[in-house]
Design brief:
heterodimer, A: alpha/beta, Urease, subunit C, domain 1, 8-stranded mixed β-sheet, disordered C terminus, B: TIM Barrel, globular, disordered N terminus
């Protein structure tokens, strides 16, 4: 217990030191998202939260004042579909239901993609398991608090989720033999059809209900003073029981209209809700049904035709679903795309004629609603977290650049400082390289192809995800 | 005379095997690292019947003793490899903590028991890659050809584990010589080693890091349930169905500690939290990036084993392949970890991590000394510290009256370039450490059968 306690203590110390910062951003164009635009406005961040927003704010002694003249201030960008900072494979694809695994266990806070995403104004990521199986692993929402430990990055109070996947990926049965390695052929796993995908989900929830009942009976017997042997705690079924009890969100990877309807039927039959449909490229065909179920839709702006089930798509998808009452977000699903989600949002103005606020909502308040964190982040309102991004010009412009990013009122990215320290960093690296090249080749060593886990500057391995 | 010498030389290995080192033995006027107490610049140690009979500056040497003049010699407790596969013939080098599958050292061993590939695992219930019940004590044999090189480096003992799967099995602390395997075992079971092995998709669950973690967590939940079910059943057999006997969990319950892999910073954090969650005593191994986590390790009060296989620039790396900054820092700073842990008084020991030639072992320790570990602390990290971490410091790890007579006698200071290992005593038997194997390029080192293989007859 002690290590945990000490970690918490460290976190508390860090949190309090951050909370002590007070920052005023003045004279900027403030895009609040939910309350319109304030020209030449100011925002005061205190104790990690937005304390005042308006044309003027009360001065505070000791506050850091940032001049926002000619610049744009937006809430931190939120990505509802990410695989960033995951150490190791994002898929436990060996089994058709891998709900026992948890992304929370493998967040790598040193993944350089976190910092690169910050440089694009991203502050919150919904880090998902891959889509290799019908029921994938447990998922977690993080704040990109670069420099902190994995537990310190977890978004406090954000409900955890679980990944589902429909269609081609989960019925792929794993890779064909010898796809990656030259090993002997091995049996593939169930399922091999879309029917099978549905059956896996139904079966798992049927098991989860039995499991729930088994524990209820055990607890009842204990309450009666009996001495029953407790059932086995099953890490695979526990999160599904949480889904049934509304304690965990379902984020379901899907493409086709028929499979979307299928999953909503299964959910209704089993008594749970789909929180978000991910990718959902044919969502425009069944938007009314999606809205009726209450699911959110998290899609791409203009990315399709990369696989057979992604052909019947349109860049108007986001706008069409939104107009029919679905809460829609645009996501990255990519360590590269996550650095410029503001530009993905801008595309909805071209395709669908969204207003600026509606477009930016797609990467701020809407994903916040989908993740159940819209009371904390997603817009510039008093009482919300001090998660803010300062752009040099309109964030919907191709030419915009992120200047500063704050999370909980603490500055996590500054473009000026970054550019300034690059030379020093290169110099430090050169010193190390020269030193290493000066020493004679060791005799005890590892072969040239050895890689040590996932490294900050190395690209992520190609994985099934989208 | 010539002939007699030749006969004597030939007879020697046999004499050793048959336990014919004269007893008692006295090493006098040597520089003695007792490790538990003060260094003796000029002391004497007496061995009798496999135990240390006496040690000190003024010790009466028994009249019948074989006397070794220790002038110019250094005596240390025999070195103990803190985590090893030594003694288990055919075991691949122990996997460095958490390295990806396919990397050297992470390859599953050509294990004695496993001849056909395991059937595809469909979840934790199939107990994939689980060898909790394997006992190192049952697998060790003096026929392991690596033992001679280890002894030539001054090692007399090792904490050895079977090397296959995620749960490797129950380790044993062994001496690196004996007539039969069972003579080598000092204490067992000493722990259960976990190796993270993200497998191939086709081999089934688990094939990811998170799958490995989920599986280990499920095993400990199952163990908890197994124990509780037994207790409840034993107290209330009427009306309850009897719980099944489970040899995977039974063996896990016998393990006094769990060894968890943690090389990089985030892995150290992760495993400190995970070990605490499992509510079992645990030890971390690997630790190359521990230079960023000294305070956390100190606070957590968890003992650690630092791998001596320092990350280095690959020999034939592509010049165009520039390593990233973190990798460069790691290569630069990893050898400073033992010194930093020592200063911070974190309980730590060193382990060979697959290095199995005498010069490489010596150089690897020297690297840590050059990076800030005191020479006496280096000796401690290979002797008493190991014994303390595994709870056997009452019988080994230092030169004290009554402890097992495991000693290394060197000419020169420990781990220095020119230092040679002159005598190695294991259970009081002198092992004639090979001078040939202490040279930089021992013959037959590169894959060829070791010359010693022909000399030793394994009887296990």
């Amino acid at each position: 217990m002690r290590p945990i306690a000490s970690l918490l203590a460290t976190a508390a110390v860090l949190a309090s030191s951050i909370a002590a910062e007070t920052t005023i951003i003045r004279n900027a164009t403030i895009l609040t998202i939910t309350k319109g635009r304030i020209e030449k406005g100011s925002v005061l961040i205190q104790d990690g939260k937005i304390a005042e927003v308006g044309t003027t704010v009360n001065a505070r002694s000791g506050a850091i004042v940032v001049d926002g003249t000619g610049k744009y201030l937006t809430p931190g960008i939120i990505d509802c579909h990410s695989h960033t900072a995951v150490e190791g494979n994002v898929n436990e694809g060996s089994v058709s239901d891998s709900s026992m695994v948890n992304i929370k266990d493998v967040i790598n806070p040193l993944d350089i993609n976190i910092y690169r995403a910050l440089a694009g104004g991203l502050t919150v990521s919904n880090v998902l398991h891959g889509s290799a199986n019908a029921i994938g692993g447990q998922t977690i929402v993080i704040k990109l608090r670069w420099g902190k430990t994995a537990p310190e990055m977890i978004f406090e109070g954000a409900k955890p989720g679980i990944k589902f996947a429909l269609g081609e990926n989960p019925k792929r049965q794993g890779y064909p033999p010898d796809f990656f390695s030259q090993g002997p052929p091995e049996p593939r796993r169930y399922p091999g059809t879309r029917m099978g995908v549905e059956e896996v989900i139904r079966e798992s929830f049927a098991e989860a209900k039995n499991y729930q009942a088994e524990w209820k009976e055990y607890n009842d017997r204990v309450a009666r003073g009996e001495h029953p042997i407790p059932p086995r705690k099953d890490l695979r079924l526990e999160p599904l029981v949480e889904v049934l009890e509304g304690k965990r969100y379902v984020h379901a990877h899907c493409y086709r209209a028929d499979e979307i309807l299928m999953l909503m039927r299964v959910a209704d039959d089993m008594g749970f809700k789909i929180r978000t449909l991910q990718h959902v490229l044919e969502g425009y065909k069944v938007a009314k049904e999606i809205a009726a179920h209450g699911a959110g839709a998290s899609t791409f702006s203009d990315w399709w035709s990369y696989k057979i089930e992604a052909y019947d798509a349109t860049p108007y998808n986001a706008a069409m679903m939104m107009r029919q009452g679905v809460v829609v977000s645009l996501n990255s699903d990519s360590d590269e795309l996550q650095r410029h989600l503001n530009l993905e949002a801008a595309k909805t103005m071209r395709y669908g004629g969204l207003t600026e606020d509606e477009a930016l909502a797609m990467v701020t308040i809407n994903p916040a609603k989908q993740l159940g964190i819209d009371d904390k982040v997603g817009s510039i309102e008093v009482g919300k977290s001090g998660d803010l991004v300062l752009f040099d010009q309109d964030p919907l412009s191709n030419y915009s650049k992120v200047l500063k990013v704050w999370i909980d009122g603490h500055e996590y990215f500054d473009r000026g400082k970054d550019l300034e320290t690059r030379g020093q960093f290169e110099q430090r690296k050169k010193v190390l390289l020269d030193k290493e090249n000066a020493t004679p080749a060791p005799t005890n060593q590892q072969p040239a192809n050895q890689k040590r886990g996932k490294h900050p500057n190395e690209a992520s391995p190609t994985e099934v995800s989208r | 005379m010539k002939l007699a010498c030749a006969v004597a030389a030939l007879a020697l290995p046999l004499a050793v095997v048959n336990g014919q080192t004269p007893s008692p033995v006295a090493i006098k006027d040597a520089h003695i690292f007792t490790v538990s107490g003060a260094e003796l610049p000029k002391g004497t140690v007496v061995l009798r019947d496999g135990l240390i009979e006496d040690v000190g500056a003024n010790v009466t040497i028994p009249a019948d003793a074989w006397i070794i003049d220790g002038t110019g010699l250094t005596v240390c407790p025999g070195f103990i490899d803190g985590l090893s596969t030594w003694g288990i013939p055919g075991a691949a080098p122990v996997a460095g903590g958490g390295r990806p599958a396919g990397a050297p050292g992470a390859t599953p061993a050509a294990a004695p028991a496993q001849t056909t590939p395991a059937p595809r695992s469909n979840g934790p219930e199939d107990r994939p890659q689980t060898h909790t019940y394997e006992r190192a004590a049952d697998l060790v044999s003096p026929s392991d050809h690596r033992l001679e090189a280890a002894r030539a480096a001054g090692f007399t003992s090792a904490v050895t584990f079977p090397n296959q799967g995620i749960f490797e099995g129950l380790g044993a602390i062994i001496n690196l010589a004996g007539e039969r395997g069972r003579d080598m075992v000092i204490m067992q079971p000493i722990g259960q080693q976990v190796v993270i092995r993200p497998g191939r998709l086709s081999s089934g669950f688990p094939n990811s890091l998170m799958g490995n973690i989920a599986y280990i967590r499920q095993m400990y939940l199952d163990l908890d349930q197994y124990k509780r079910a037994r207790e409840i059943y034993d107290a209330h057999p009427g009306g309850n169905r009897r719980p099944e006997y489970d040899h995977y969990l039974q063996a896990l319950s016998e393990s006094p500690r769990l060894l968890l892999p943690a090389v990089e910073e985030q892995q150290i954090d992760r495993m400190l939290a995970f070990g605490a969650e499992l509510k079992t005593p645990f030890v971390l191994y690997g630790l190359h990036e521990g230079f960023t986590r000294v305070d956390q390790l100190k606070q957590a009060n968890v003992p650690v084993l630092v791998s001596l296989k320092w990350p280095e620039k690959p020999k034939e790396s592509d010049p165009a392949d520039i390593p990233n900054y973190r990798e460069l820092v790691l290569r630069q700073r990893a050898p400073s970890v033992p010194g930093m842990l020592s200063k911070a008084q974190v309980r730590f020991a060193l382990y060979s991590d697959g290095i199995d030639t005498a010069p490489e072992l010596r150089k690897a320790v020297k690297k840590a000394i050059d990076a800030g570990l005191g020479p006496a602390d280096a000796v401690r990290a290979l002797t008493l510290s190991v014994a303390e971490i595994y709870g056997v410091s009452d019988r080994m790890g230092s030169i004290d009256k009554g402890k097992i007579a495991n000693l290394v006698v060197m000419r020169g200071d420990p781990f220095e370039d020119k230092t040679t290992v002159e005598y190695v005593f294991i259970d009081g038997q002198e092992m004639k450490p090979s001078k040939e194997l202490q040279k930089e390029h021992p013959p037959g080192a590169a894959g060829a059968p070791h010359p010693s293989e022909n000399l030793e007859g394994g009887q296990n």
